[in-house]
Amino acid sequence: MRLSAVLLIIICVASASARKERSTHQRLVPKASVEEIAQYDSLAADSSSVAISGFEKTLRSRWETFFVTNKSSRAVSSLTVDIEYLDAKGRQMHRRQGLTVTFPEPIPPGETRQAKIPTWDIQSVRYYHLSPPARTRSQATPFWVKITPNTITTPR
Questions:
Q1: Who is most buried in 37, 79, 139, 142, counting CB within 10 A?
Q2: Could you tell me where the beta strands, DSSP code E, fall in the chain?
Q3: What is the widest separation between alpha-carbon atoms in the chain?
């Protein structure tokens, strides 16, 4: 009898101290399913799939902009490029490889969208040679660019 009373007390204490498990967490984020991961294709890019034009970076700008024209038969949702920055004599000043440019909405075939990327010129002392001249007396260095598209990402 004494053993069953002690056992009953232990069971009561254990069940009272057990925490209630809450199964309705408010901030649960579902993991990406295989279908969501595989909804994009990455394709090698060349001059037949995209055209890049209209590069601009003014002296004090924190952004570089250019236009991307989709010449492929599928919509383009992002683009990976290499950008080489050159001085007036054609010498390399800087290089950015594998820079990904993502568009808010895919670019339909045959259409053009503006791309905007943070500048490499964090000191704001360089400008693209075809950009409007700055009205300042400070020393500034012009540069030229070579942009090479590597891959494009298209929705399936």
A1: 79
A2: 40-44, 50-56, 63-70, 76-86, 92-107, 112-118, 126-128, 141-155
A3: 100
Confidence of residue 97 (pLDDT cuts 50, 70, 90): very high
Is residue 26 over pLDDT 70? no
Nearest to 150 by CA among 101, 91, 93: 101
Q: In terms of Cα–Cα distance, which of 130, 68, 128 is closest to 104?
A: 68
Angstrom CA distances, 1 to 15, 64, 93, 139, 150, stand at: 21, 85, 90, 97, 81
3-class secondary structure, 100: strand
Q: Report residue 147 as tokens.
A: 């942009």
pLDDT digit string (tens) for 80-92?
999 999 999 999 9
Least confident segment among 12-16, 31-35, 84-88, 128-132? 31-35
Beta partners for residue 43, in sequence order: 152
Tell the residue number behind the tokens 């809450």, with chain if given: 22
End-to-end Cα, the chain, rounded Å: 72
